[in-house]
Design a protein that fits this description.
Blueprint: H1 5-26, H2 36-54, H3 60-81, H4 98-122, E1 145-148, H5 150-155, H6 157-164, E2 170-172, H7 175-185, H8 190-208, E3 214-215, H9 227-237, E4 241-243, H10 247-255, E5 260-261, H11 263-269, E6 279-287, E7 294-297, E8 303-306, E9 316-327, E10 330-337
Length: about 350
């Protein structure tokens, strides 16, 4: 139970008991009713708190669905109850008994709202007829929104970016993205299964990050091909940015005027600019192609080729940059080991 709500619920129950005592003191008389109203008020308070606890996790979509279902059900029941169907008995032509008509109307006002509410709650589409989701994101709100794609969760770097505090935005992870991630984790292929499970682990890491707000709108798609279009539409309607590592999805978002973020571009922009003659430390992991060469990698993933580093494979050494060669995958750095005398 939430520690913040615990004193509020306790005060509410005490107020209900005090209300029962007030009824006993002002309305009822005699010793026989001295404690009964107090217990009645206490029971009502506990019943309300119990309903409150049972409604834990009741979403705004469910509330709007219940509201819509009750309204439609009451309207149908009212239209049927005032119709001529209940005025005349179709077999004998005699007017129905008033008690029978009363019972039929009570049944209509109970059954119709129930059926309409159940149908509204079972719907898998976005339920925004009563309270549209977009209305909760006014244009003047300063907090930015970022719609997250499945590829970003599988990539995994978003957890470290959010943990560092550089992405100060509310993450919007639609329900169909979670379903797609779950289907990948349940795949029979080991490679896809491992990627899906890594995405689920990243999702749990995001939930543990403090001061990071995650919004999961209830939205579904019927076909896998509609996921990209639905992501673009959702980001466009919410005036949000789209975070993805999928090149085709990014180009689709760009065509529709939706701003998009790419973790690969972020990682590339964060690579340090190395200059000739600069000294860095590198872990040598394997021999190079030429005689005496050793290959290592620095933190941004760039490969460093050390001309005389083969005897030092498996160790961290300090090297001096001799040249930098740009490649499609990053940078290839040629360096020479700095001696102990230096």
């Amino acid at each position: 139970m939430n520690k913040t709500l615990l004193p509020i619920r306790a005060v509410f129950v005490l107020l209900c008991a005090a209300g029962g005592w007030l009824v006993q003191a002002t309305v009822l008389a005699g010793d026989y009713y001295r404690l009964l109203p107090i217990f009645v008020g206490l029971g009502i308070g506990l019943l309300v708190v119990l309903v409150d606890v049972m409604l834990k996790g009741f979403s705004l979509r469910a509330l709007s669905a219940v509201t819509f279902g009750i309204g439609v059900g009451l309207l149908v029941a009212h239209m049927v109850s005032i119709s001529p169907l209940l005025d005349v008995n179709p077999q004998r032509g005699d007017p129905m008994d008033p008690a029978t008509i009363y019972l039929i109307r009570i049944g209509l006002f109970v059954i119709c709202p129930y059926l309409a509410t159940v149908i509204a709650l079972r719907g898998k589409d976005e339920f925004n007829l009563v309270i549209p989701y977009v209305r909760f994101v006014p244009r003047e709100v300063d907090v930015p929104l970022v719609v997250v794609d499945t590829s970003v969760l599988i990539d995994g770097r978003i957890a470290r970016v959010c943990e560092s505090g550089f992405l100060s935005a509310t993450l919007v992870i639609p329900r169909f993205v979670l379903n797609e991630l779950r289907s990948v984790a349940d795949s029979s292929e080991p490679n896809k299964q491992a990627r899906g499970r890594r995405g689920l682990e990243v999702l749990n890491e995001l939930r543990k990050i403090k001061n990071l707000e995650i919004n999961i709108p209830e939205s579904e798609v019927l076909r896998r091909e509609d996921v990209d279009a639905k992501l673009v539409f959702l980001a466009q309607s919410m005036r949000a940015k789209l975070l993805t590592t999928d090149y085709n999805l990014a180009k689709m978002a760009e065509f529709h005027g939706v701003p998009w973020l790419n973790l690969n571009a972020l990682a590339k922009s964060l690579r340090p600019e190395l200059m000739l003659g600069e000294r860095i430390e590198v872990d040598l992991v394997k021999p190079g192609k030429e005689e005496g060469q050793a290959v290592g990698f620095i933190e941004d993933g760039s490969m460093v080729v050390v001309g005389d580093g083969r005897p030092h494979i498996g160790r961290r050494v300090q090297v001096e940059i001799a040249s930098v060669l740009p490649t499609a995958g990053g940078k290839m750095i040629f360096a020479r080991r700095v001696g102990e005398a230096d």
